[in-house]
Every structure is written in C-alpha cells, then in structure tokens.
Amino acid sequence: MADPWQNAYDFAVQVARAAGAVIRNAGEDEIKVQTKSCAVDLVTQTDERVEKIIIGSLKEQFGNGTHCFIGEESVAEGEPCILTDKPTWIIVPVDGTTNFVHGFPFVAVSIAFAVNKELEFGVVYSCLEDKMYKARKGKGAFCNDEPIKVSDVNDINKSIIISEHGTDRSIEKVTKIFSTMQKILRIPVHGLRGSGTAATNMCLVASGASEAFFEIGIHCWDVAAGAVIVKEAGGLVLDVDGVYAFKSDHMNIK
Length: 254
Ligand SMILES: O=P([O-])([O-])O[C@@H]1[C@H](O)[C@H](O)[C@@H](O)[C@H](O)[C@H]1O
Ligand SMILES: [Mg+2]
Description:
The chain is an alpha/beta fold. The protein is 35% helix and 22% strand.
C-alpha cells in the first residue's frame, strides 16, 4: 500500500530547512523584542513571520480544508489549540526565541504531524548548527540522514541530564526548579545542561549526547516533534506520572 504521509514528511523537511534560512538571515529590525505572557517570555517579528511562512506553505500544499494547524504564535494570538482526529500540523517557528534574540547559537524550527491524535512524524531543524533531525513513526530517527539512537548508559551517576528554567520567575517556581536541580546534581550526575530550546534538547537525548531531558511547565508544541524523534531513537517520553506524555488532552487548550 502506498505510504499516505511520506509526501507530507518530505515536505515538512523542506519547509523546516527554508524556515531555518529565514531565521539565519533575519535582519536587526526582525530581532526587536516584544513580550508575551510575562517580561521574560520573548517573541520577535521573526517568530510571527516564520510561522506564517510555514503555515502558508503547508496550506498551499495540503490546504484543501482537511488539514488543521496549531502554531505557537497563532495560539498566542488567540487561535484555539485543539487536537482532533484530522491531520494536524503542530508548529514552533522559532524554538529558543531568547537564544535567537541574544545570538546564543541554538535555535530550532519544530514541525510535528498528527493523525487520529497520534504523532506520525516530527522534524526539528537546528538551524544555526545546520542539523536536520527527523523521525517517522516506525521508521527510525535521523540527524542529517544518519541514524541516531539514545545513549546506552544506564547508570545515572554517569549521565548528563538536560533541563531548562522556563519563564516563571516567581520565587515558588524558581525555588522548585533549583531544588529539583540540586537533588539531581547531588545524585551525583556527571552534569546538568540546557541548550535553551526544548526541541534541540530532545534531539540531544535522541542522539545519545544526554541521557535525559526534563522540564516542568512546558508547552505541548515544544515537545511534539521531539517526542517522535526520541521514541524512534529508542527513548521514552513520559509525563510526571510516568505515563506517555503526548496525550491529546494535553493539547486541548481553548
Ligand atoms: O519560547 P520558545 O523559545 O519557543 O520555547 C521555549 C524553549 O523551548 C525553552 O527551551 C523552553 O524552556 C520553554 O519552555 C519553551 O517555551
Ligand atoms: Mg517559539
């Protein structure tokens, strides 16, 4: 039987690469910072522009009304974030906006695709490193077309753990984050790291550079593409209760 989503997968890779080029070439005025939910939750014109380019290209290719789109910036502007059984694209145009603004060299485009509320594939393009991570359900995970797999280190004392601090600077949240990090460091582990983009963090786990990534309070779109890549590289994606994290009810935000 013909593979129904191969064309969409190939197109997603193409679109992510083109979006990455737009990010790399963004001019000064496009890096001008605005804020979203709080003073450290940043957004730029590039985030909005790249999301429009990605959704525009996908609609042109697949936009006969049967496909749905969930984009980070569209949701920020009031679009619903509801996962139905329809083929749905889940997009982060610029993952690592704070890095992008500061010239910190990890910025990714993340595109996932779900059908019947199941993720079919994920593409993460780490555009400043020019690394294209991709995975299709049941078909393995790749970085620049080379197969990748998770680390085989099973001793946590010999691990590198990745985490992020998020954008909530309330004393309660910051205390919780640092007490968790303190516990992890004291295990002890070899190291704690964070690239500033959740999508790239997941790809670092998928390629075996780190044994685990965790973040408290992450958005569903930040992990959608990375979830397929980690799973196809032989890893696990769990929520805090220890169950598979990418459930449809995590997406359904009005
Ligand atoms: O805002 P953004 O740069 O697209 O995405 C953020 C990054 O992935 C960051 O690493 C993570 O800690 C945040 O939770 C995300 O919201
Ligand atoms: Mg973003």
